[in-house]
């Protein structure tokens, strides 16, 4: 599926918050307590890339550059657009970019979230487990 990205704006907040809640609340509640302010407290529009499909807001992702790594803080695709290769395409581009820069990619996924299998399919490996999350990493420069 073809998509584009743009930097989020303040007026995207309601969509982004609802998407985050819709995608994550059930998984969080299985292993912990849902905090409705979780997304709101970390909302920085300029740090979020909005995903659009033919002008329709379809998801978002957030990358946090660190010293020798890139932290994938969020990758959310709306249910209507899941299973269309959007998440895979974003991961492939991130892996390619990080490999060229010789950066490690890190992320965390809530235990029981099926996204874990997407990350594992791309070669991410667990390096830490907590009660709520699996912490995963990938060194794409080793794959080149």
Task: Spell out the blueprint of helices and strands.
Blueprint: E1 4-7, H1 13-31, E2 48-53, E3 56-65, E4 69-77, H2 86-101, E5 104-110, H3 115-121, E6 125-129, E7 133-138
Parallel strand pairs: 4-5
Antiparallel strand pairs: 1-2, 2-3, 3-4, 5-7, 6-7
Task: Summarize it.
29% of the residues lie in helices and 33% in strands. By secondary structure, it is α+β, with helices and mostly antiparallel strands.
CATH architecture: 3-Layer(aba) Sandwich
Number of H/I helices? 3
Total domain modules:
1
- Gap from first CA to last CA: 26 Å
For this structure, the CATH topology is Aminopeptidase
Structural class: alpha+beta
Give the % helix. 25-40%
Q: Report the CATH C-level class.
A: Alpha Beta
Mean pLDDT reading:
92
Keywords:
144 residues, alpha+beta, Aminopeptidase, 7-stranded mixed β-sheet, 3 helices, 29% helix
Mind explaining what this structure looks like?
Strand 4 (69-77), helix 2 (86-101) and strand 5 form a beta-alpha-beta unit. It contains 3 helices and 7 strands; from the N terminus they run βαβββαβαββ. It is α+β, with helices and mostly antiparallel strands. It has helices at residues 13-31, 86-101, 115-121, and strands at residues 4-7, 48-53, 56-65, 69-77, 104-110, 125-129, 133-138. The mean pLDDT is 92. It is globular and about 40 Å long. A 7-stranded mixed β-sheet has the order 1-2-3-4-5-7-6, with helices on both faces. The protein has a single domain (4-142), classed as 3-Layer(aba) Sandwich (Aminopeptidase), CATH 3.40.630.30.
């Amino acid at each position: 599926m073809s998509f584009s990205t743009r930097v989020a704006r303040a007026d995207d907040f309601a969509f982004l918050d609802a998407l985050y809640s819709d995608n994550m609340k059930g998984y969080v509640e299985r292993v912990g307590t849902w905090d409705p302010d979780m997304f709101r407290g970390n909302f920085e529009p300029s740090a979020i890339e909005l995903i659009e499909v033919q002008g329709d807001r379809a998801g978002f992702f957030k990358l946090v550059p660190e010293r020798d790594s890139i932290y994938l803080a969020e990758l959310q695709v709306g249910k209507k657009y899941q299973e269309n290769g959007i998440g895979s395409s974003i991961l492939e581009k991130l892996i390619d970019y990080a490999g060229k820069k010789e950066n490690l990619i890190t992320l965390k996924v809530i235990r029981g979230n099926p996204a874990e299998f997407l990350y594992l399919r791309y070669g991410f490996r667990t390096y830490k487990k907590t009660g709520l999350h699996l912490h995963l990493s990938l060194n794409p420069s080793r794959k080149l």
